Amino acid sequence: MSYIFTSESVSEGHPDKVCDRISDTVLDLFLKHEPEARVACEALATTNRVVLAGEVRASDAKLSQIMLEIEPAVREAVKDIGYEQDSFHHANFELQNYLHEQSSDIAMGVDSGDNKDEGAGDQGLMFGYACNETDVLMPAAIYYSHQILKNLAEVRKGDPESILGPDSKSQISLVYDDQGRPAGVHKLVLSTQHDADATQLDIRSLVTPVIADVLPDGWMVDGENLLLNPTGQFVIGGPDGDAGLTGRKIIVDTYGGAAPHGGGAFSGKDPTKVDRSAAYASRYLAKNVVAAGLASRCTIQIAYAIGIAQPVSLYANTHGTGKIDDSVLQEVLRDCMDLTPRGIRQHLGMNSPIYAPTSAYGHFGRMPGEVCQGSFSWEAIDLVDALTSSVR
Q: Which of 9, 37, 45, 332 could form a disulfide with 239 if both were Cys (CB 3.0 to 4.6 A apart)?
């Protein structure tokens, strides 16, 4: 039976994504100075104001210096996004910093000791997913939604006189055939912030080629199936138009609703937080299963208890597409990777300042090292040989 499935993406200038970028910028700053630093940074952005809150831990020798560097780093991140509006300008917004020391109770659960391995920073369940709908083994609707906005941002940043603003959203409804394969676009929606004097024709002529360049041949739509700025005007945008918060776009960050999500957000959290590191590990395992040809779809769930190093469960589901039984696959995956919090961090090289680039256009479906050394390491497919040899 054929069906239609929809996913959306939002740009780096969306108010929630501004906050994700700020939180990950703070995280990267701590990790640059101290790879074992602990960070849980939340941000709120509204009209000419940014508020930071959360818990951090670093050595006394480093902490005071890091705190001095936070404000210029945050302003530079907002500048890079492109905000120079009267009501949200990188140089003029008021910054309030309420970061404070990490709870000693949480630290006690995470820290290793003489008779104890490093434990998970919280209880929780994390999902990873991969499928063969695209070359990067991501669901097609979210992947193309991300790519359209990513390319549109490059067009905007490449033209100092661009009529486009930083805030934008895309949404793609795909038709799937009776074999469950994406066959084309049903409807595509794109809303982009723009200058006050830009016309709908100006926007359409600029945006349409970007969309057409991203979509596969034969998928481009027009007329009533291509909805560009359907309200007619989008001048007021970003945190001045709508307050932003860290961690409010978790479905955009992952699989666009095509797979389950454990509930935890990623941005602003150091990799001792399994909300982040285990979600990345789950994606890494699922992607390698599909890349190895062991399934065309794979969902992985890993769950943890606070203060306990080993996961309390690992679940694999290949949705009837697996070449081996899912129960066997679960045991193979446990043997292929140390899934303790420290094991994940070491295997994927996660104690580095690599996180700001994840804050927009998806945490998954990217190329390893595409932004900086070590970035998107969880997108590597270097477990394929180990997996295939284990199931022979």
A: 45
